TrEMBL record:
Organismal lineage: Bacteria, Pseudomonadati, Pseudomonadota, Gammaproteobacteria, Enterobacterales
Entry keywords, A to Z: Oxidoreductase
Keyword Oxidoreductase included in the entry's annotation: yes
Protein name: Oxidoreductase
InterPro entries xref list: NAD(P)-bd_dom_sf, Sc_DH/Rdtase_CS, SDR_fam
GO CC terms, sorted: membrane
Homology family: Belongs to the short-chain dehydrogenases/reductases (SDR) family.
């Protein structure tokens, strides 16, 4: 299973508190899933893309 998060869970930025918190929650959720499912042969990983300046 692959979950897509963001670097915002490691490196918060202004005016994005809820976004960063949701990505941190997703990462911890993935860690919990990994612990529960690894014995069943299910791999769980999180992809955390970096920031892109789109200006």
């Amino acid at each position: 299973m692959v979950l897509v998060s963001s670097m915002a869970h490691w490196l918060p930025f202004p005016r994005a508190e809820a976004y960063g918190a949701s990505k941190a929650a997703l990462s911890w959720f993935a860690n919990s899933l990994r612990l529960d499912w690894e014995s069943k042969g299910v791999a769980v990983t999180v992809v955390s893309p970096g920031f892109v300046d789109t200006r």
